[in-house]
Structure prediction request, 145 residues.
Amino acid sequence: MKISTKGRYALRMMIDLAEHRNCGFVALKDIADRQNISKKYLEQIIPIFNKSNILKTTRGSQGGYMLSKAPDKYSVGEILRLTEGSLAPVECLNQEPNECERSGECATLPIWQGLNRVINEYLDSITLQDILDRQKERYTNDYTI
Prediction:
C-alpha cells in the first residue's frame, strides 16, 4: 500500500481546515498558500469531500470551506479511504467475501488480513484533533534559550 499525493494533500488540507476552524469559511487559495499545494490540485480533491458531506461550503467573496464536524470526529483512516479507496495491502482483500480462487488454501492470506487490520485500526485511531494536539505539543516544547 502506498498513499498517493492525492491522499497526502487531502489530509494536509483537512488538517489546515481543522487548524483554522474558528476562522469561518476558509478559501481554497489560503489553504493552497499555507500548505504549498497547487490550488488546482485541491480543486480536484474537494469534490470527493463534497459528495461525502464532511465539509460545509459557501460561495461568493467570503466563500470557502469548513469542517462539518469537530476535528475529533474525523479519522485519518476515513480521510484516506475517501481519497485512496481501499487501504488493503493486497487486491484480494478488496472483495467481501474474498473471491480469490486460492483464498481457501492461501498460506499468505492470514498475513495480509493481519496487516490490513493493523493498518486500518492504526489509521482509524488517529483523529485530526490528535494531529493538532501533537503539533501544538511539539511547538510548545520547541524553545531555545
